[in-house]
Amino acid sequence: MTLQRRLLRRFRRWTLLIALAGAAYLGLRFDLVTLPPDGCSPVTRYEAGDRLVIDRHPGDVQPGDAVLVRAADGTLHLVLVEAAREDDGRLWCSADCARCDAFDSGSVGWLDLSAVAGRVLLAWVY
């Protein structure tokens, strides 16, 4: 076997390994969530039936971000971050769609940052 063939074989193996590692990272870091098509969206920038790309490990959550939060009963809710307290890592979240009965901090108070299950990065109509 010539040197060129050995190098080409190694290059192919490393390329495959890097591609597999990248796919594993994307699968662990991001998630696709579809909003129920027959309901209403609590955040007006998204519509029922939209697909959302969720970053499951958001580094920084700021006011104005749309996030998924996990309620005390374990259900996930789409909300907007209205305010963030830097000192204790708490968030004030609400829904901006008046026609939807939605989860918000008005009824449960400030939410701990650990309640954030992910931040919405991208949405498209499915």
Q: Summarize this, please?
A:
The chain is an alpha+beta fold and about 130 residues long. It is built from two helices and seven strands, in the order H-E-E-E-E-E-H-E-E. The protein has one domain: Ribbon (Umud Fragment, subunit A), CATH 2.10.109.
Question: What does this protein look like?
Answer:
The chain starts with a helix and ends with a strand. It has a seven-stranded antiparallel β-sheet. By secondary structure, the chain is of the alpha+beta class. It is 25% helix and 34% strand. It is built from two helices and seven strands. It has one domain: Ribbon (Umud Fragment, subunit A), CATH 2.10.109.
